[in-house]
Amino acid sequence: MALTDLNNLADLLWQRVQATPDAPAYRQYNGREWVDRSWGEIGRDVACWQTALVREGLKPGDRVALCLHNRTEWVLFDQAALALGLVTVPLYFDDRPENMAWCLNDSGARLLLLEDGKQWAALSAHVKTVERAVCLNAIDVADKKLIGLNEWLAPMGVTALTRAYAKADDLATIVYTSGTTGRPKGVMLSHGNILSNMLASMQAIPAYESDRFLSFLPLSHMFERTCGYYAAMWAGAQTIYARSISGLADDMREQRPTILISVPRIFERIWLRLQETMPPGSFKRRLFEAAVATGWRRFRGEASTGDNWRWPLLKLLVANKLERRLGGCMRLIIVGGAAFAPHLARIFVGLGLPIVQGYGLTETAPVLAANRAGDNDPSSIGRALEGIELRCTEQGELLARGPNIMLGYWNNPTATAAMIDAEGWLHTGDLAKIEGGRVYITGRVKDVIVLSNGEKIPPADAEQAILRDNAFEQVMLIGEGRPKLGLLAVSKIEDPAELCKRANAQLSNFPGYARICHIARFADAWCVENGLVTPTLKLKRREIEKRFAREIEAMYLESDVCTRREHKD
Question: Looking at 206, 233, 258, which one is the last position of a domain?
Fold first, then answer.
């Protein structure tokens, strides 16, 4: 039973507890076993968290921050804070301490919920505004500001869930952009921004009480928060918190989710692993490619009689195996956060996975457009959600206007004015075309490499093309202001000349000047832990260029025969 007449985000839980108190709400692994919690139990816990926050002397409008892995305590804190009119500031768990400290100081957060004391030890010397740090796990740091969760939640005799009376235009959260370039900006989103977007998303792609979400993208990212957390609560579905990204495959097989909110990087990894089991030219590889080609023609409505006869066998031998790897119950996979490469779409949609691509920004709470289950063109980002206007400027930039557009950037009116014009149109920074109501992203306004001769190359398109070759795990194109293009590549292949040859083979359909002439090969993957990708697995281009500045300069000193030696992080 979906909820109606919602006034604010805390209303989601209050109404859900009234509607289905005994239904399963969350499942979480406690280190020994999976534990289920009902909506009624969650409501009683949130009441205790509300009381603890009140005891801190916090007032409506005060900012409170949290830095946790995805888990039920994230929801308890968020719901308790929202019900009291507080403004939540989520931080990425694996972010650098100096970056987290900057966000805390910039937002003026008075209270911080952490997972362990080590985080506070790294932050405390740099954080000026936090008056209380609450630690979820055992404390191993001596600091008068730090308190354990059990002590902080000492019984206080209050068990009734307080209903919030926040207005739709009240500030609900400040979400800092993941910072692929420069300092992150604090995106101010109201209760109405997020609620309107969640409801429009569910109108386009519904969820139901019978669904089971598997949550692994950071809850500090609006894609997971709106389309996973708030949407699941609205629908009354159960959310299962994955143990880790590295264990995601096991969790999918064991927990058998019906809905997955994902980023393309997950499917890049699956495709890499699949290729390792299917050598080129092998019978297994030919069978796989036949299944993809047949399934793709069926999806596009171009199947021949022979395709329809062959498909049941190909499905049994190939597609069903992939489906079982995902648990065997997957009803819907929503992909967003970055462009879904066409070759990946063809592979996984062709094999029957129920993938729909959406598009949005943190600044739009976040979804602007999405494909629908029965109206799916994987080469597009779909159609605008209900209530959202999309149009393109003469230069091709995609603009958006609607109830989900942010209030602005916290403490940054200049950046706000640059993002939202006088007529309320938000400038996405993406180039697009709109045909028959469908939106197709064609590039970035600023994300273009300009060579010293004036030739321009959109790096994202070239990188997607290169990644079609499973020799490459991660790549980043460089060459701004230089005479020729270079490539940084994470790969198991040690011969840079071979890598250069294979990269250029994937660029055969690009203009002639889009040719890799210099390459640096790296053995170690770029990841969140080493600070080279964001928590949503986007490349931190400036950080990568900064980290490998010496290697970049060295490879450009050599000739363009791609004879670069191996580098390690």
Answer: 258
